[in-house]
Amino acid sequence: MIYLSQVNMRYLITGVSGFVGGHFLEHIFARHPGSDVVGVDTERAKFDFLNDLSKKKINFHRGSLLNKKLISGLIKKFKPDYIINLASYSSVAYSWKRPAECFINNTGIFLNLVESARKSKIKTKILSVGSSEEYGIVSKKNIPITEKSRLNPANPYAAARAAQERISRIYADGFKVPIICTRSFNHIGPRQKDIFAISSFAKQIIEAKSGKRKEITCGNLKIVRDFMDVRDVVRAYDLLLRKGGIGQVYNVCSGRGYELSEILGMLQKKAGTNLPVTAGPGLTRLVDSPVIIGSPEKLERETGFRREYTLSNSLKDVLNYWDGKQKKGGIT
Asked: What topology is assigned to 10-190+228-253+290-308 in CATH?
């Protein structure tokens, strides 16, 4: 489904330099030409993946959202129609290493954002991006997971996301700030960092094809996860900003689960490899749910969302991304 907006909208994107932020930018300028974007991040991205970058309206600000003055000033001056909060420490593994830092950062930046929006009295819609990790350990009898499923965060990252969602509900119900929440399941796609499983598998396979390694190192391959292409994810986010219910929560997922071993096999088949697999130290989480599969029924019913990318499409593009990086001068 291709649609072009006839109205130029103003987007404020936090965490704009990250994996999802870059794809959201691509989506905006492809589907809503003429949109005006203010991006905030602690690191500046090159945005070299955007065609005709000089013609895009992107005003980048480098800084931390823990700086209340920065985000408050941007909201008051820019008066965004939509805010999408992608800024966070997003690695579960990192949250186990630095739990206090991750919790304080992820909840603190979101509080600064919504409080600045409240005080500005600008009725900007805010998308609070959460995680399927909020559901914690889920028994197979409760699969697929719906938005009515009990939250039971089992790691520091998930606890921060659950707190963020509770803050969202308070601001939406009590202060009437128009906030829409997601519980987003696993994303995959080109340009994802190799600290995430699928991207790591693909990178290692490409390295092996160029003679840099002879095996694949990984964690627990028995877990089952619900993966959705990041390009579908950002389209879902945009639809939620336009059609989602204020104060409502939506699973952003595919509704289909795959064991990691199955996905690794699919990647190897596409690449024409048959590499041995070994367990890597530190790659298994302290606490991990064996199966996480979500129901996208509410998202689809209320926004008309339908996926455009199959898992096969996504895996092919991830392999091509790492192959391209290898050919351009090697993978680091």
From this structure: Rossmann fold (3.40.50)
